């Protein structure tokens, strides 16, 4: 989806020790974002375009805002957000299905445009210089502390999802949490600052005991209940982080298998931003994960049809075909699943990891239909594409012994 601090989530999700019950909260309701900094027409329009996935339009608006406010680190962060997430969407790094499984830790770096990479570095440095200059003058400058936490959160996202530099990303994510904890000490009513603090509280509170002890040794504590509560407060706080907080909530609720709550949260966003392809896709994925194929399969088919009709800006329709394949597979419609998997492979810009997942899945479906030759062909394609990947190991196993439905 479009979470600006998703790296803070992704970095630590692998440490979760399984789903456990957290006190249920009242789900966020649909609402418009109420306030920004800077609060100008360019910023407001930019965020409307950003959450509708009109990234080029959003970037243009954020550039105009920065021209008007050249010394405002918030304005720099907004432009950095637009530039970075446009590229991440292009290369397929915003696929929530990838992060719902542990294999993402072993996946390789995404191929990023060098010009965009350079611009991200320039904007990150510009924001940091503005923030540090203000904090040098006043260490308790709430706006500068908050802005630095956002910059660090964005940098953590970049390091984690693009560079796959987990430890460097973790340091940046922890720095973001510390900045926003300080913001809350100085301004307890700052709901936007509650998002990163809430995410880290939830994640650290979910770690296995030995890892949690290690986290406490470096000054990190956590409470899952407190984390969820802070995220709800951020989601309903009316600030520029409210949508991002809802996205974080939906990711955690999905991890907890609290699907009805996650569906309610995502649906509340999809109603406000109907042209956001990733929100529509996540809703369909949640229907499937929650065991509601009668909702998931039509939802995926609707996304494909709307994408083909030009409803969504620049949709990654291959992701919808993959979701449809997974949903049909769950209903033992092996022929339909194999055909949907094969549709994914027809798109030139299907990212390498999704291509591997899809090719392996197609092979498994052909084995399930006792079409051994077709299955072997797919397994050989997986190995040829990336012989050292975890999926290549699975493919080698199925070359020796056919895949069977458990």
Description of the structure:
The chain folds into 2 domains: 1-272, Serine Threonine Protein Phosphatase 5, Tetratricopeptide repeat (Alpha Horseshoe), CATH 1.25.40; 274-406, Tetratricopeptide repeat domain (Serine Threonine Protein Phosphatase 5, Tetratricopeptide repeat, Alpha Horseshoe), CATH 1.25.40.10. The protein contains 20 helices and no strands. The protein is elongated, with a radius of gyration of 21 Å. Helix content is 69%, strand content 0%. It is an all-alpha fold and 406 residues long.
Write the layout of secondary structure elements.
Layout: H1 6-13, H2 41-51, H3 55-68, H4 73-90, H5 96-99, H6 114-137, H7 142-163, H8 166-186, H9 194-206, H10 209-217, H11 224-235, H12 242-255, H13 259-272, H14 277-289, H15 293-308, H16 317-330, H17 334-344, H18 352-368, H19 372-385, H20 390-400
Helix pairs in contact: 1-7, 1-8, 1-9, 2-3, 3-4, 4-6, 4-7, 6-7, 7-8, 8-9, 9-11, 9-12, 11-12, 12-13, 13-14, 14-15, 14-16, 15-16, 16-17, 17-18, 18-19, 18-20, 19-20
**What is the β-strand count?**
0
Helix share of residues?
55-70%
Q: What is the average per-residue confidence, as pLDDT, rounded to a whole number? A: 87
Task: Report the CATH C-level class of the largest domain.
Answer: Mainly Alpha
Shape: elongated
The largest pleated sheet is described as: none
The number of domains is: 2
Order of helices and strands: HHHHHHHHHHHHHHHHHHHH
